[in-house]
Specification:
Layout (H helix, E strand, L loop, with lengths): L2 E5 L2 E4 L4 E8 L8 E6 L6 E6 L5 E3 L7 E6 L4 E6 L8 E11 L2 E6 L3 E6 L1
Parallel strand pairs: 2-11
Antiparallel strand pairs: 1-3, 3-8, 4-5, 4-9, 5-6, 7-8, 9-10, 9-11
Length: 119
């Protein structure tokens, strides 16, 4: 059984910082992609940042130069450092981990952690 556990959400003021962590544990051999998504009230879930096992990263335009994604492959852990936070960053943030096997993609999701940014 695979568990995806996020931590680090909370409240911050505009311009502040928060750091999210996500650890994946259980019967997994190797994770390919790990990413952070977010969903604000009344909006669709969107990709915030992603990283591959090789270290490549990609970011949503709205968070470029403010957020940094990193991962520890040995620990199956991914982090999201969020700086210069804005009220529009307020959302539930979800950790996503992907395992790819021939002909199949398996997605694992965390339960979500709330991030609230006040002006």
């Amino acid at each position: 059984q695979v568990q995806v556990v996020e931590s680090g959400g909370g409240s911050a003021q505009t311009g502040g910082s928060l750091r999210l962590s996500c650890k994946v544990s259980g019967s997994i051999f190797r994770l390919n992609e790990m990413a952070w998504y977010r969903q604000a009230p009344g909006k669709q879930r969107e990709l915030v940042a992603g990283t591959t096992s090789g270290g490549s990263t990609n970011y949503a335009d709205s968070v470029k130069d403010r957020f940094t994604i990193s991962r520890d492959n040995a620990e199956n852990t991914v982090y999201l450092q969020m700086n210069s936070l804005k009220p529009e960053d307020t959302a539930v943030y979800y950790c996503n981990a992907v395992r790819k096997i021939p002909g199949r993609r398996i997605d694992y999701w965390g339960q979500g952690t709330q991030v609230t940014v006040s002006s």
